[in-house]
Design brief:
Helix content is 23%, strand content 27%. The chain is an alpha+beta fold. The chain folds into two domains: 203 residues, 3-Layer(aba) Sandwich (Rossmann fold); 127 residues, Nucleic acid-binding proteins (OB fold (Dihydrolipoamide Acetyltransferase, E2P), Beta Barrel).
């Protein structure tokens, strides 16, 4: 229910098949329905329509404890009065496992996760990364059919997040386990998932492997969400000149911009755009597909744009250049040795073989 008692469709007609041993990531902005989807799988939320099937068995009416799933939450929720060993063993003791089996499973999990030296410590004596490893270990000792992760790394600092991503990925390959992982961090999704399901407003926008999502986004939302810095977008129209098609920048969806960006399309990408001649369109290109053209260097003028470098952000392995030209601001990713300076006019070649085009009415990708 919403704040005024109205009905809210948190998850809208989601249909997913997750294979054995697969690592599937649900990614999207806050409030898009990804955690609700995970909780529906776990049985922590009631399904109002449709079904959840595990190993061919519909489990809608099956209690969470009987679904053979284990969930790792954003907050590790360890028992502070118990040692690491007792936290790991607790679920097995409740289920009346023999002592020898408990000791074996706890020992194996502790070794795999690198917390064996900490078994006698209390959670308060551990670092954030160690506590999260213990939370993962508590699920691991159960050996469930499916591991469910609900943003388990969001409370860790950047270095620990990177370390724990590697740990979880290693664990997935080691156990050959089925894992479903929720995150709002698209970098985390790209580095972890065998496949990624991108969600918005309770609807799955696209499901694919990470590089397919990056290179062939199915719509405007996926194109803008996957990638850091995100894809650059330009409003404009398609023009026909002779045997070639061109993109011309506009202000919004109306008048042409003063001194607009005009770019010739690749002949190979032109046929699907013939029907858009004279119509509004959205052109997208990723920051790495803008190549700085040093002064005096020859380049195709029909694919070169001169712009003002407003901000230059060196981040070590690369530099992000924030540019403005015509009616749009955009970002280029250049090598750290590139001699671009703030407040200077620079020329960039648009690699139009990597261009993306979207229908502004539907948001869908054209010609992919």
């Amino acid at each position: 229910m919403g704040p005024r008692g109205e009905c809210v469709r948190a998850v809208d007609n989601v249909s997913l098949t997750i294979e054995d041993h697969e690592f599937l990531v649900l990614v999207g902005p806050s409030g898009c329905g990804k955690t609700t989807t995970l909780r529906l799988i776990a049985g922590l939320e009631e399904i109002t329509a449709g079904s959840v099937t595990i190993d061919g068995r519909i489990v809608n009416e099956v209690a969470p404890k009987d679904r053979d799933l284990e969930m790792v939450f954003q907050h590790h929720a360890l028992y502070p009065q118990m040692s690491v060993y007792e936290n790991l063993a607790f679920g097995l003791k409740v289920r009346k496992f023999p002592r020898e089996e408990i000791e074996r499973r706890v020992s194996e999990a502790a070794e795999v996760l690198g917390v064996a030296p900490c078994l006698n410590r209390k959670p308060g004596e551990l670092s954030g990364g160690q506590r999260q490893r213990v939370a993962v270990g508590r699920a691991l000792v159960r050996r469930p059919k499916v591991f469910l992760f609900d943003e388990p790394l969001s409370n860790l600092d950047a270095n620990l997040r990177q370390q724990m991503r590697a740990e979880i990925s290693r664990l997935h390959h080691l156990l050959a386990a089925t894992m479903i992982y929720v995150t709002h961090d698209q970098v985390e999704a790209m580095t972890l998932g065998d496949r990624i399901a991108v969600m918005k407003d309770g609807v799955i926008q696209q499901v694919a492997d990470p590089m397919h999502l990056y290179q062939k986004p199915g719509n405007l939302f996926v194109a803008g969400f996957i990638g850091s810095p995100p894809m650059n977008f330009f409003n404009g129209t398609i023009l026909s000149k002779g045997n070639a098609l061109f993109f011309q920048e506009q202000i919004g969806d109306a008048a042409a911009a003063p001194h607009p960006i005009i770019l010739r399309l690749e002949d190979a990408t032109a046929p699907p755009l013939q029907g858009y001649v004279g119509r509004n369109i959205i052109f997208g290109i990723r920051p790495e597909n803008l190549v700085h053209k040093p002064q005096g260097q020859d380049a195709a003028p029909e694919r070169t744009v001169e712009a003002l470098a407003e901000v230059v952000q060196p981040i070590g392995s690369e530099t992000h250049v924030h540019l403005v030209s015509g009616a749009h601001s955009f970002v280029a990713r250049v090598p750290p040795s590139d001699p671009v300076r703030a407040n200077q006019r620079v020329a960039f070649v648009f690699e139009m073989q990597h261009a993306h085009f979207f229908d502004p009415a539907t948001g869908k990708t054209i010609g992919r």
